[in-house]
């Protein structure tokens, strides 16, 4: 019909040789508009050849022509494969097991691909180690489609071919004249890579290998090495834990490689009247502190003393540790509980000090703890800080001839970055093996771009005797080559890395192909790992650490804290070490604790802030502003660091996230925050810094400012203690609301309390979603999974600040003070209306308890949004889903106003293919991650959680096609799949004896704001805290 | 696009009339043609039969088609060599041995056999121990059939006659028109002359009484004006609505594709099952445009269409054999198939088909749901594809069209355990035995819009 038609927008375009048309391609106007000349002189206006009438004629003609042309649809091309791969069926997803290992995040994943494009990361349920994924792992698929990636090898800034690259670099490497070649790599934990590096050092003289972690666990590695003779980290399985005492260890964050959430969450769900008890001593408010039963404020220096005290208390002593009476009592209580728990107790610490780590290991040994596993330790952190420091001084002395930087970015993340840079100047051959031309890449003369892990082969030994295989899920997007392939080339090995992996595979239990399909295999002892130690630069300056010397050192260091604020550097849940700084999903991900996105900030206690005159103010539009400070550590000064006043921050301490402030190969929108790595002096995460207030306001993009529920807590978050839960009737701690009916009170669950006619949902599937507040740790994996599955747009910092964030699923964080909710309500009622809010607000500042609550559309059976839509764009399905029809929506936003849960999101702008925004939906590469089964919403349309109807419909269709009944556990949503904590469960309540039915009948079940009678299909489980002191 | 289609049918109609006009003469031509070819065939047979040792070419043809045609052609090289006159190149005894078990022959060290094996990329030929010497004689007799001469000239003669007829009818029409014009002119002149006569004779011509013009009367009748304005407005609105509802509906969309692929030949004449090529319709949301390797499953050995003389010919008056053969060459070029060496060159070129059925992004449609679960014929939505020379959009693909079908169509539940319980409860609820898609919840917005 229209294949051979020419479309035009104005008459001029019909003229083939028009210079105007050519000019218009580049400029908005063909010539500079002489507006002054034109409008300023009345005569010229009169004599103008184009009269007003002519003008109107042109306008009329163009409009008519344009609207006529608009009646024809565009020609759409469909390009099938020439030779279709056997396994790909267009329109059907394939799943591949692989493993993420970027040096910071290690995780077994399942990758969903459509038409050969990876579009989503799922958890690999076959993996017993690190099979659950955090938010960064879920978002990593988008990092592959990063426009800032290097697209081919370069020498001195100009693009070359790989063969030219090999040839030129080979010449250089052979002509180094005795100077050493140093490989500065990330932690690979890969037996084959280790072997390959050994091959390489055999082929070239004087090769050194230095492993570097941008945020390292040097202290813990040193301690473990000293005690168990192996540079690795102990593993923990918290599922059977009865008492967990943590001193500054954010076990739900990235502490010692992270990934402890799933087993921790298992121990937190009350079963047979029992659950674990978690005591947390910490300075920053962390996820772990938020989830703890008891959180005790302790600055880093106090933490050191606490570690020493616990050791002496466990070993039967009663040391006088010089702690404040409150702390002393808390420590004694914790130690007592630990002792009582015996082998079911575990003591962990995040104090960045080899002595403290040593003490922790010996405490667990004394307890006989079965929670800690030292026999098969984790290999996911191997960085050696001493070796890195040594390398920097070697570089400065000119002893290094060639430096291969692999997967790390020292020019950004080294604390002594200036020393490194000056040293780098003296290195002749500087090769960067990285996905991007980052800060280090800019200083290198050879750039050898590497592929993303979804385009690579590899093996990763996450834990001793447990290997995961990495396989590509897409052909490399760019002209990249794996570091390992390069090593093979340069050692004159014709093998591909795939063949190399295969020949190294010596597992008797699983064949290589089976392991590739599963992604994991245990019981592997590769000979390669044994040869590893030879090439590794092993420098441990501390020498052997003995327990007694460690204790003495700890107490002494605890005393000698200098003047100033004690800073604890941490990695944020969103950005981690900053490797994925150019990932808009992660930038927009609100921090679970501060609920602030697009930033890092100095967290400070209210008390200290008041003392320094630092303020956080909420503007008239509801957005948050904060004061700036200058942070000084020795000769390092960080200017304009915004301050976020954090409830529960230990007075005298401050916190700052690493991984921000990255500039190179990061889009302008995402160059946010300050780089805190210069404060990471000597690779120690705790420092004593000076803080001075400076002028100006920083604009935060914080999505949740209220720190109180203003007395309505009982309907939103229900909390109780284990003691009450075990002894009292459910009606006492899981109160069901009442309403008036015929002048008497009836339960809201009573039939008469319902004014609506109910849907008949007794047949076919009827979906319910269950959220267990005990198991939810607030990690946010579900938020990113929802983002990826449902094509949720990224809106940018300013729009988030305007509360126009589009997250379908948010995790609300609530603080509660020591007062009970009832007291808070009472206080509120007694106060005059205008004062009440601020009074309850301030109380929670000292050391609040925290609760996380994922909230998405509650899919009410009597949905208030459905009744107010003037165009019936919202319908209710028989399966219980509240269905939003985008193509019908006209954008009145009545529904959002009428939603009691505030889960509806409005598209204020067109977020895809719009030049005003520059996130993944606005470039061809980033759009490849979109889920083809979900509509990309347009401007002016309301959207919200659909309960992943595309996934439930697919499950149903598969069953229909295969002619079978759907079993329990088949239905899933993106969030329930992503939740490795087991907090979010999804299922069909019409399947008898299914898990969801059991959860629905559980006495902990409650509905959000049940009193309003909207009958949601999402329910929660009351949060139970184990408050029992020893 | 609609007009285009109409035009097409109009031209077809005129051709048919032409054909009817000329049927008599062309019928005569055809008679002569067939006798002529029969003669030549007979002659060829009688010529070769003594050499063929009594082989029956007709029986041989059947055997050839059943056993050999997958890899051999008579006059062209295919997977194996062209077989025309093979008896002249090879010894008959050798041929017996080769056909019955060529591997044995090769293993025996026969140089000729090994040479030919190597020439054809070491592709081993099947063994045919079931064929008797007589059968092989029959096949060899058939292979000696000479290539029939193309009968194109005869066809062209017919075509020429047709176009001549076209010219003459125009001429006739032209002449008729001229006659008519002359008639009008003559009448006018006659009338004029008569008037002059009347004036000259003094005959009183009746003078028409000047009446009020009808338009004036109409304007003065305000009621009539109002009614007609209303009627005009309503009518205008009706047509405007109808026209505007066409926007975005591409029913009949019939774009020109980069390779002329005839569904008529494939699905119609050759009765290839739709899902042989569109295999993903069974399991996926997309029916899928077949990748070119699927085409090559058959087209490796089909490099040209049979010409008009063959009973299998697909050639029509609009599309000649040359036209179709050229299209097959396009396929070979795209997939990188070298006909002379019978191998892939590896140089491929994706084909950019023009998509005909364009559902908007916000509508979800799954083929497997309809094709596999509901067992709906492809033709229900795609129309008589087996008759389409050029594929076009048959259905309007509007939401109303979908919904109507969902309201009227009963869901096929028999023998599908998935539906058992649902069927039981729903049929109780609605008091019916058969359930429509609508009763199953097929009208819920969220089932197609997410």
Automatic annotation (TrEMBL), chain A:
Coiled coil: none annotated. PROSITE patterns: 4FE4S_FER_2, TAT. Residues 767-797, 848-879, 880-909 form the 4Fe-4S ferredoxin-type domain. InterPro entries: 4Fe4S_Fe-S-bd, TAT_signal, TAT_var_transloc_signal_dom. This is TAT-variant-translocated molybdopterin oxidoreductase. The lineage of its organism: Bacteria, Pseudomonadati, Bacteroidota, Flavobacteriia, Flavobacteriales.
TrEMBL record, chain B:
PANTHER family: CYTOCHROME C7-LIKE DOMAIN-CONTAINING PROTEIN, LIPOPROTEIN CYTOCHROME C. Pfam families: Cytochrom_C. SUPFAM superfamilies: Cytochrome c (SSF46626), Multiheme cytochromes (SSF48695). Residues 55-147 form the Cytochrome c domain. It comes from Leeuwenhoekiella parthenopeia. Residues 1-30 form the signal peptide. The chain crosses the membrane at residues 171-190, 223-244. This is C-type cytochrome. Keywords: Heme, Iron, Membrane, Metal-binding, Signal, Transmembrane, Transmembrane helix. The lineage of its organism: Bacteria, Pseudomonadati, Bacteroidota, Flavobacteriia, Flavobacteriales. Gene3D superfamilies: Cytochrome c-like domain (1.10.760.10), Cytochrome C3 (3.90.10.10).
